[in-house]
Amino acid sequence: MRKLTAFLIALLGAGFVHAQTATLVMFNGKLWTENPKAPEVQAIAIAGERILAVGTSESMRKLAGPGCQLIDLEGRRVVPGFNDAHVHFLSGGAMLSAVQLTDADSAQELRRRIGDYAKTLPKGAWVVDSLWDETRWRPAALPTHQLIDEVTPDNPVMIWRVDGHAVFANALTMRLAGIDRNTQDVVGGEIVRDHDGNPTGVFRDQATGLVERVVPPPSEQQMDAALSAALREAARQGVTSVQNLVDSPTVQDTAGKLREFQKFAREGRLTVRIYDAGALRDWRDFAHQGIEAGFGDALLRTGNLKAFADGSIGSQTAWMQSDFTDAPGNRGLASGDLQNETAMYGFITGADRAGLQVSIHAIGDRAIHTVIDLLERAEKEDGPRDRRFRMEHVQHIAAADLPRMAPLGIIASMQPYHAIDDGRWVVRRIGPERIKLSYAWRSLLDHGVTLAFGSDWPVAPLDPIMGIYAAATRRTLDGRNPDGWVPAERITVAEAVHAYTMGSAFAEHQEKVKGSLEPGKLADLVVLTRDIFAIPPAEIEKVRVHATVLGGAVIYQEGAAR
Questions:
Q1: CA quadruple 439, 444, 446, 450: dihedral sign
Q2: pLDDT value at position 553?
Q3: CA-to-CA distance for 23 and 45, rounded, in angstroms?
Q4: Helix, strand, coil percentages for the chain (3-state, nearest 5)
């Protein structure tokens, strides 16, 4: 018995020593911890995948164990790993290798790029996974299929508008889909037609499904390539966690993407933490399997479900209280999900009672108001719970709805880059009064709403640094607002970083696991080339990621071979 006791004491002692020794120590830096009790420290000690301690360089170096990796930060700024609260991860990866159209500054340039790309493809291969943006053209008119038919006679085309709420197809694609002047419009969507009633090739919101249904699904090899590219991009941008949202209101195979993530996780190739969402209409499938919000592990989780309330401002399908300024008589569209409000409410309460998380896309002020009404009713009928309802985008809120979100615990999942992009043209669409509460980060924070920041990649760049720059400056991409577009809604750099770290972690029920540099949490962090808290906010766009650490392992190093 004495020998057994001595053995156990020795074993416990060894475990204690091991628990107090680090495998990685990063020192001589400026670490922004997101812990208000110790907001900035010099160094961090990591044991395996977890943070062991933070403090002075001297004290952390004393924790180094045998074989510990020591990294001198040389005074660089360190922040917690960025957590992108709203991405379309596989789509983003696929678009990295597709024809790049977002910055095409004219319809003729779009035609040229598509034509050149089509020449590299075999006959019958699809032109997909690209984004177009007619707001960059003069005049800013929607394209028609005649623009590209001549340069794509043998290749079907289906490319998305940059906001993800309209597609553009050529004549070949429409023939394959059986679409002609006799095709009926779709509830919650629109087939754009010419003066004679013929489809122009542009399909909005729910009508995109008419074209999507004939596009062949990506092969396993294509999905592998897309995910690999997305992972490289995430590491390069300092993104250690993503929350993957359903791509469109008509998407069907959400399970296929989850299987792809699972495969990479099994094979040890998943270098970003993923919180994957399904479609809210499929809540019964999740509930019958006993899945609740946060099902999974630290690397791959699910249990979030997304629905759509409307479309987008760019596609004139956001659901507004009043007409679009540049389109009298048009107030946008309630989504296909929301056309039947009773059914939509049933989806919300069914998912909520099953312990699943509900996230709803809402951009226009009428959509936002309606969603708040539905969530308020659900909260009252289902009773208090830490449910964390999420509203995705919240772009154009009415003043009367600002104080309604925080009491219901509704998280505003927003994408700051959209403001400096849309700010180039959105006043023409909704007028000077409604823009005063567009992307209203300051107002939402002042009303106690939790912000969770993301990118909406590939609709916008994955780069969180540009998101922080956008939130702190609101300087539009065209350079016409050097003092900020609607500057009253700017927030501080610290508030923006919080929204990209702790705010996003809270949005996925993970604030006790990640989002700050505190002992016991996951060792996910980003080393920056400059101190974003010390330089003028206007210079933040020049900052780069120097290194990315995921679970105590360096997964990206600036300048290193990849």
A1: negative
A2: 97
A3: 8
A4: 35, 20, 40
Residue type, 363: I
Closest by CA position to 355, among listed 291, 297, 301? 291
pLDDT tens-digit profile of 501-516?
999 999 999 999 999 9
In Å, how far are 133, 200, 224 from 101, measured between CA atoms? 8, 19, 23
Burial class of residue 197 (count of CB atoms within 10 Å of its CB; 0-12, 13-18, 19+): exposed
- Whole-structure pTM value: 0.90
Q: Where are the domains of the chain?
A: 2-75, 98-212
- Look up the CATH number of domain 98-212: 3.10.310.70
Given pLDDT bands bounded at 50, 70 and 90, which one contains residue 75? Answer: very high
Dist. CA 374–CA 392, nearest whole Å: 15
State the Cα–Cα distance between residues 420 and 132, nearest whole angstrom. 17
Give, in degrees to the nearest 5, the angle at Cα 62 between 56 and 64: 110
pLDDT in tens, 202-261: 999 889 999 999 999 999 999 999 999 999 999 999 999 999 999 887 776 788 899 999
Q: Which of 337, 358, 390, 340 has the alpha carbon at shortest distance from 278?
A: 358
CATH class (in words) of the domain with range 2-75: mainly beta
348 neighbors 202 (Cβ within 8 angstroms): no
Tokens found for residue 14:
């060894």
Taking only the tens place, the pLDDT of each residue in 423-449 is 999 999 999 999 999 999 999 999 999
